[in-house]
Write a structure and sequence with these properties.
Distance between the termini: 39 Å
Largest sheet: none
Helix content: 55-70%
Structural class: mainly alpha
Strand content: under 5%
Radius of gyration: 16 Å
Number of strands: 0
């Protein structure tokens, strides 16, 4: 019964982290992120934060707007922390303008 649930559409066959990992690796290759950044770890941190927000959303502790704000905050914090020097100000900008979440 548990195995059949995979076909129900309630479970993703592929992890969305695959695309996030690739995007982080591409950003490092393009020089947006520092060369010493472990992009797999960075993607995992972002994904974990989004899952936390998702749990709160599912439990109706936060609404759609708050969920989006928290997911974007996780992404912005991770990118700012990993930014290469030429892009640091650009990747910090969303954090400077974002309200509290």
């Amino acid at each position: 019964m548990v195995r059949e649930r995979e076909d129900s559409g309630l479970v993703l066959n592929r992890s969305p982290l695959t695309h996030l990992r690739q995007a982080m690796a591409d950003s490092r290759t393009q020089g947006l992120l520092r060369a010493d950044i472990d992009t797999d770890a960075l993607a995992t941190v972002i994904g974990t934060s989004c899952v936390g927000a998702l749990h709160q959303w599912v439990a109706t502790l936060i609404d759609d707007d708050r969920f989006l704000a928290r997911a974007l905050l996780a992404l912005d914090v991770a990118l700012a922390a990993a930014a290469a020097d030429p892009y640091r100000d650009q990747l910090l900008a969303p954090l400077r303008t974002r309200g509290t979440v």
